[in-house]
Write a structure and sequence with these properties.
With 186 residues, the chain is α/β, with parallel strands linked by helices. It contains 5 helices and 5 strands, in the order E-H-E-H-E-H-E-H-E-H. Helix 3 links the parallel strand 3 and strand 4.
Length: 186
């Protein structure tokens, strides 16, 4: 039986390093895994009025329903994110909030997850990852604890075609994906 992995990229920029990382790890999963990137750029900003049963003038956007259903049908979630101003990019926080409601049907609940963070500087998205881990901990999501993946100086890992060319980093990411795959299989 195939395991479904959804990759969420915490950047809207088409040429982002987070997207390059995500594209490079797609093939690192076992053959019996179905791995897809889900786009988040068209999700409206979260507003609780959409999920408030007392509010009748705010129908739930179809984009929310489709996104929530994708997360619910996933066996695991891989987040690949940059750091923006020492925290989670706004588009990624929006995704966390959208799937945190309604309270009786939280899409994130118990979904295994893994996080790869990066930055063009030396810190590797440390603050972003720690803030994302904190937000997700509320939903009792099992996560790959060690090693944590903070890719500093991320532009240096790729060739001109966007292929991951740093051999040690490629091996490190493969080990991380293997650990995540084992967590999902449990």
């Amino acid at each position: 039986m195939h395991k479904k992995i959804t990759i969420i990229i915490g950047s809207l920029r088409r040429g982002s390093y987070a997207r390059k990382i995500a594209l490079n790890v797609l093939d690192m999963f076992p053959e019996d895994f179905e791995v897809k990137i889900i786009e988040i750029r068209n999700l409206p900003l979260y507003n609780f009025d959409y999920d408030d049963p007392l509010e009748t003038d705010f129908p739930i956007p179809k984009e929310y329903t489709e996104f929530r259903n994708t997360i619910k049908s996933s066996d695991g979630i891989l987040f690949v994110t940059p750091e923006n101003n020492r925290t989670i990019p706004a588009c990624l926080k929006n995704v966390v909030d959208i799937c945190s409601k309604p309270n009786h049907d939280v899409a994130w609940k118990n979904k295994p997850n893994a996080i790869i963070s990066h930055s063009v500087g030396k810190m590797g998205g440390y603050s972003s990852q720690k803030n994302l881990r904190l937000a997700l901990s509320y939903f009792d999501m099992p996560t790959v604890q060690q090693p944590e993946v903070f890719l500093g100086n991320s532009p240096t890992y790729f060739d001109k075609n966007g292929t991951l060319s740093a051999v040690r980093t490629k091996k490190f990411l493969q080990d991380y994906i293997n650990r995540f795959s084992q967590l999902v299989k449990k």
